[in-house]
Amino acid sequence: MYDRVIQLAGSFAAGALASGALLAFAAGSPPSNVVAPRSMAAVPLPAVAGASRLGLLRNEAASGDELSNWQLSNALFDRYDASGEADDLYEALIWMERRRDVSGNAQLIARVVDRYCGQRVVRWHWFCVEGE
């Protein structure tokens, strides 16, 4: 039993020594997988630019940025006005509700009440139900 423990310890030490030697030699060598950075497209496509802008705003709003949340809600409302896609209206409402500073939502709430309360997506939202 004692011989087996010594054998395992020796194997571990030999492996550690070999790994250390490889790391020491690799530290001085130039990296072999360096790739030149890709150049950006000269002019992004409008649809891709809009989608990436919304994606960036979504990421920043999800991290708690109040201004990005407000800009995202406005952009989604504008997109709904242009396309009539109910998903944009619903997502804008979800982002509005996530804002911590409800007093900053006054302009957005007024926009919802003025324009969208007749829409099926918003009809029973607490912004639109009378007496709430």
Rg value: 29 Å
Through-space gap between termini: 79 Å
Order of helices and strands: HHHHH
Strand content: under 5%
Number of strands: 0
Secondary-structure-derived class: mainly alpha
Structural domain count? 2
Q: What characteristic shape results from the CA principal axes?
A: elongated
Q: Point out poorly predicted stretches.
A: none
How many strands, what sense, and barrel or not for the largest sheet? Answer: none
The number of helical elements comes to 5
Mean pLDDT: 76
Give the fraction of residues assigned to helices: 55-70%
Keywords: Signal
List key phrases describing it.
single chain, mainly alpha, 5 helices, signal
Question: Would you mind describing this structure in some detail?
Answer:
- Residues 1-26 form the signal peptide.
- Keywords: Signal.
- By secondary structure, the chain is mostly helical.
- Helix content is 65%, strand content 0%.
- It contains five helices and no strands.
- It has helices at 2-28, 46-62, 66-83, 86-98, 106-116.
Summarize the structure.
This protein has helices spanning 2-28, 46-62, 66-83, 86-98, 106-116. The protein is mainly α and 132 residues long.
Secondary structure elements and their pairing?
Elements lengths: L1 H27 L17 H17 L3 H18 L2 H13 L7 H11 L16
Helix pairs in contact: 2-3, 3-4
